[in-house]
Amino acid sequence: MTAALQTSDDDPHRHGPQLAFEDLEVGQQAEIRQLVSEDTVRNFAALTGDTNPVHLSEAYAANTRFGGRIAHGLFTASLISAVFGTKLPGPGAIYLSQTLKFRAPVFIGDEVVAQVEITALDPARQRATFFCTCTVGEKTVLDGEAQIMVPTRDEIEAELA
Q: According to DSSP H, which parts of the chain are helical?
């Protein structure tokens, strides 16, 4: 089952509904799309302090195996967090763990699609396991698995009371 959690084209990070653990099913998916711009890379470098010239200097990056500047790998990975916090499961989700494999570089001008899919649910611990991928076109640039703690309906209602 695919969750109906698509966003409008003009607001790629609009919040979906707050889903409770009881609302989740194996197979549910959600995604966001993000264009990697010059500003994206520079702002991420400023925010994190990662000023590696492979991200910021065209002259330096031209002589690397990539042949040009690439986006920070953890910027790409952070898009997965955006899916969890805004789409599936949405607000209230707590990131517990993540494995990542960086499979290919992301370049300025690329559109990254970050997608998550529920692969397992553990009701006793309120944990959802997700397979996560980031793609550019047909190419997988990153994948991994995440564990998310999801509030129950009762916990959400108590927070709203």
A: 38-48, 53-56, 58-61, 73-86, 153-160
